[in-house]
C-alpha cells in the first residue's frame, strides 16, 4: 500500500459521523459517572460535538476545531486548574474505549493501538496541564496522529 493510498485514522474510523456518535455515547456515560461526572457537571450541551471536532482533526479529518473553536489554545484553557487525578484520567480513557466498542469503531489491532496511543498521550498531557501551578505552552498546533508503526489492516 502506498502512502497516498493509506487512509487517515479519521477516514478509517468512519469520519465525522463516527466521532460524533462516539462522543454522544461517551458523554452519556461520563455525566452518570461518580468519579469524572463532577468535572463535567456544567458541560455545554454542545461539548460532545466539540470533542468530536477535536478528535476528528487529531486523527486526520478537517481542521474545524482549529478554525471554529480556536485550536489548541482554546482546548488548553478548558483544562487549566482542573487538577485532574490519575484515576479520573484513566476512567476517561476507559469510558471512551467502551464507547468506541459500543458505537462500532473499527476494532482491528492497528486502529485500536493508534487510537489508544493518542488517548493515553493526550490525557496524560491534560492531567499534567491541569495541575495547580502548571505552566504548559500556551500556543501549539493541534496534534496530528497517525498509524504509528502498524499500517492499516488490509484483509
Automatic annotation (TrEMBL):
Region ranges (Disordered): 130-155
Organism (species): Nonomuraea gerenzanensis
tRNA-binding is among the record's keywords: no
Binding sites annotated in the UniProt record for heme: 74
Transport keyword on record: yes
GO molecular-function terms, A-Z: heme binding; metal ion binding; oxygen binding
Protein name per UniProt: Hemoglobin-like protein HbO
Keywords: Heme, Iron, Metal-binding, Transport
Amino acid at each position: 500500500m502506498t502512502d497516498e493510498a493509506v487512509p487517515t485514522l479519521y477516514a478509517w474510523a468512519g469520519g465525522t459521523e463516527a466521532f460524533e456518535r462516539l462522543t454522544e455515547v461517551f458523554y452519556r456515560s461520563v455525566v452518570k459517572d461518580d468519579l469524572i461526572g463532577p468535572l463535567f457537571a456544567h458541560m455545554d450541551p454542545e461539548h460532545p460535538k466539540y470533542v468530536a471536532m477535536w478528535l476528528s482533526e487529531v486523527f486526520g479529518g478537517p481542521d474545524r476545531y482549529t478554525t471554529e473553536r480556536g485550536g489548541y489554545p482554546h482546548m488548553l484553557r478548558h483544562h487549566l486548574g482542573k487538577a485532574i487525578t490519575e484515576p479520573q484520567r484513566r476512567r476517561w480513557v476507559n469510558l471512551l474505549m467502551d464507547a468506541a466498542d459500543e458505537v462500532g469503531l473499527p476494532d482491528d489491532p492497528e486502529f485500536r493501538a493508534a487510537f489508544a496511543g493518542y488517548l493515553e498521550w493526550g490525557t496524560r498531557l491534560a492531567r499534567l496541564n491541569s495541575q495547580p501551578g502548571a505552566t504548559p505552552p500556551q500556543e501549539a498546533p493541534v496534534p496530528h496522529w497517525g498509524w504509528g508503526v502498524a499500517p492499516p489492516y488490509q484483509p
